Amino acid sequence: MQKIILAAAVFGMLTGAAFSQAPNFDDPAEFAKQRDQLTATFNGPADQPYLQYAGDSMADTASFKKEGPWTVCFSNAGVNNPWRVVGYTDMTEEVKLHPEIGTFTHVDAEGSDDKQIADIDDLLAGGNCSVLIVSPNSTAALTPAVEKACAAGLPVIVFDRGVTTDCPVTFVHPVGGYGFGIQAAEHIIANVPAGGKVLMLRILPGVDVLETRASGARNMFKEAGLEVLGEEFTDGDNAKTKSIVEDYLQRGTIDAVWMDAGATAVAAVEAFEDQGVDVPVVTGEDQQDYLQKWRDLGFKGIAPTYPTYQWRTAIIAAVNTLKGEQVPSPEWILPQPAITQDVLDQYINEKMPPLHYAMCGCEDMPNYPQAWGGTE
Amino acid sequence: MTDTPLSTPRRFRFERHASTILLVSAVALYIALIIIMGQTRFLTLENLVAILGRSITLGITAIGQTFAILVASIDLSVASLISASAVVTSVVMNGDPAMMLPAVLAVLALGAVVGLANGLVITKLEVNPLIATLGMSLIIQGVLSYYYNNFAGNVPVEFQVFAYGTVGIVPFSLMFMFVLAGCAWFVLRFSRFGSDVYSVGGNKDAARLAGIKTDRVVIGAHVICSLCAAIAGIYLASRLRSGAPWIGAEGVYDLESIAVVVIGGTVLAGGRGGIWGTIAGVIIFSLIDSIFNVAGVDAFVKQVLRGIIIVAAVAFYAARSKRPVA
Amino acid sequence: MSAQSLPQPTAATRRLPRINPVYVLVVALILAIIVMNPAFGEPTGYMNFLKRVTALAILSAGALYVIVSGGFDLSVGSIMTLTVIGSSMLASNDPNSTYWIIPLMLGIGAVIGLINGLVVSYLKVPSLIATLGMMITLNGVAFMWSGGAPRGYLPDTFRFFGRYNITDIPVISLLPIAVICLVVFGVILWWGMHRTNFGRMLHAVGDNQQAARLAGVPVERVRISAFVVSALTAVLAGVILGGRAGVSVDIGSGFELQAITAAVIGGAQLLGGRGSVPATIAGALALEAIFTLLNLLGLAQPVRLVVQGLILIGAVAFATYQRKRAGR
Lengths: 376, 326, 328
What we know:
heterotrimer; A: alpha/beta; Rossmann fold; 2 domains; six-stranded parallel beta sheet; five-stranded parallel beta sheet; C: mainly alpha; 14 helices; ABC transporter permease (chain B); transmembrane transporter activity (chain B)
């Protein structure tokens, strides 16, 4: 046994050293670009962020113009976390606003690349789709399937995570991961004196949009002279998050907790509460439970967002394409605001579920709030 | 195998044809549903191929898992091994067509080593197979994610032919899976090793008394199982164009491969069952997936139904069994 | 069980192995943690640790009932999830709801255990598959019920068991409610397994089902009861974990394998016949202590996996070796 493990380890090390070519998650150019986009002015109506876009580059979609009723096909990576649940509700509600959409076919890959490729094959073989919307489970793996769909002459809309081909009509996404990391890190740097100790809590390694959040923040902490106590992975598990914070508290003080996603932010705050320690700066995301905890305890919080309204935008992009209207392209970059202390109250709604994402851009929809699990 | 000829002819026939019955009913349900819902556009040859091609990874893995279960063992390490194999494939190839053969050989070697280790731990250290392979799974996953935490390397275009190449409308990979199944069937049906597999799975002590080197058979079955998982990893790397340390786990290939093997009529206690049942099980799973997609079943309802179907299908065989079960 | 090895003449040299090695392991690990982090030796240190391990410890002790009877229960993690999600859905922020929700959840748990037991005993579906199916189904039910994301909070009365401490106690200064639960349920489960006729029948069924049946043991009833006990403890573990951590849709995932791991580290024999509740609880402590220690050493998640894998295999291989040496 031991020998085998050793052999495996050595083999791993050799191949790792020789061939490892991890995707670049620390790209200064992209970092600077997103930093500018955070404060840039966006085109489009000011009160409808899901219609706004950065830049002027548009695609002409006249060749995709089609008479209704349309069949809109959607290959979804999964609805396996609350963010995707809120987003998917946004999407289905948006579909109801467009009578030209005759059929909305949704196939759910349950978080598996392999299954999503098969799903897209199914849709191409028998789905009779007018347009294909793809929310890829992972970037590289879904690229061939998306290329195949483009080759079949379908207009394709990609959103959330991208693909490495520019054959889709557009790729809808907010500013991005660096932007998220920057907003949280700036807040910490502004509120913690130099030399302060920051604990970085992350969900899991390897996911593009999460890696860039961390790398953006890490560089800024280093520049500002803050000490990073550690980077720990929580697996998005509340119990584990609480244990990690407890362990760090036992060994010393923590001046700030930086989080790459907000689902476990309340667990981190509770760890301080339960130990009878004052809650320091804890960053989160736009989940209701965090926003309310922040208001109730009055600690110095901030909620960068990765807005779920992009799920609405994907449908809007599909509809515009089938109408032959112009669509921002090759990327439709949406604004990505952070919720700060001064606007906190306007995003809190106690009637909504704990993990409802406040930046849903859905308050103007007819079935709000019931469709999102809220009560009148 | 050892005792079924002694039981009544009726029961014998039922056991033999049960997986076919399940398969036929799944197909009938699928067609009925399509007709009822007026979605006849799904009744095309292309769509049939798409359905069969849904579960190649699962199919290849399950062929190997059949061997492990037939010898009354089980393998929970296949999912991690699939991830490891896919990563090694894409890292060693790293876009270079000249490295295709070395990469495949390296992965097969990895599979053989893992299978050998599983087999040795189970037979020589007498560790319960569930624990042995669960432990192995954790070890592989740990070593793998120590070095890689994302998609690593890439597979050259020439190699993507394995997953995306077709003859007419039939993908190579689908043909490959059936050829592999045919080989497995041949081995089980006609080779000495095959009959030993059934004897050892049916009754280990009797097999030992009959002069069969039972340890070797168990080790052999595990090597085959791991080799199949390694091949599944190679296929997945070709399909996804790269390998990442989570792709095995995200496909739940460990539990799903066990589920399709038992749905295909192979008994978890070992000694009875076969490859074609497993293939039927794989097709049933693909059909269920497609049925859910056609009917637009909500992902959560899907999960509930899938759980019930697994238990119901196994109960369909097992309820008339008189043996105690674990 | 142990009576068979008593008449051995060389008892003096064999006495040592009969102390279950898991206790040595736990003590060694805890000492190592204290050396590395002296704060662990203070009440907040070790009480936090015990609080953290309570859910797993109770769960493993319950899952042990099924293991001793010769089966597996893979559904326990999903029962925990269902308990937490279901309670948050039903509570609708009403602190008084806890008093009927916990009994209701225990009722649901009992029904799930009953179904598991019936499917295994009468439909003859192997427990691995039956409870795997149940696991998939219940996770789906929890998702369906909530719509995929938590829809409510757990009231403080519910979270009391997993979250709150009694403070200002002399000597130990604070005592988490969870630790009281651990002791109470630990003793109940120990009593049921080692001091009742049911416990003896459980061992008999797991050791040799045919022989037990011939000896007049109601095999089906015993096995079904084991699944019910396991499901009930999973509900309790869910209440405690939900109390500690709050609501999330995958809160119980992975606990089924951790429970089996804890039992195995505690020397339980898979496929039945052997197992001890205190040793299983010690197994859970050992598992959590290993994780704590690895964290202190700054070793990342991948290393934890490898160590967990080696310990699993090592523990079972060691137990087999011991049993062989003892001539069983």
